[in-house]
């Protein structure tokens, strides 16, 4: 290759980064959703333990 020239960019690096980001993002989203649901259940069971449905 002569000086001043470069190989053509194929975009494989960008696709790899996008794929890893999407995979990691869904995994973290699932963990976050699980934490929120666990918090809702703990709040419901802990603070309203002795009350029935509709009781304030």
pLDDT < 50 runs, ≥5 residues: none
Number of helical regions: 1
Q: Approximately how much helix is present in the residues?
A: 55-70%
- What order do the helices and strands follow? H
Rough shape? rod-shaped
Largest sheet: none
The total of beta strands comes to 0
Distance from N terminus to C terminus (CA atoms, Å) equals 79 Å
Q: What structural class is derived from the secondary structure elements? A: mainly alpha
Q: What is the mean pLDDT?
A: 76
What's this, in brief?
The chain has 56 residues and is mostly helical. The chain has one helix spanning 12-47. The radius of gyration is 25 Å and the shape is rod-shaped.
Structural notes for this entry:
The structure is a single chain. The chain has 56 residues and is mainly alpha-helical. It is 64% helix and 0% strand. It is built from one helix and no strands. It has one helix at residues 12-47. It is rod-shaped, with a radius of gyration of 25 Å.
Key attributes of the depicted protein:
about 55 residues, mainly alpha, 1 helix, about 65% helix
Any chance you could write out the topology, listing elements then pairs?
Blueprint: H1 12-47
């Amino acid at each position: 290759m002569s000086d001043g020239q470069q190989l053509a960019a194929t975009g494989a690096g960008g696709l790899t980064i996008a794929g890893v980001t999407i995979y990691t993002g869904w995994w973290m989203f699932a963990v976050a959703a699980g934490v929120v649901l666990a918090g809702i259940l703990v709040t419901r069971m802990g603070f309203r333990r002795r009350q029935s449905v509709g009781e304030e």
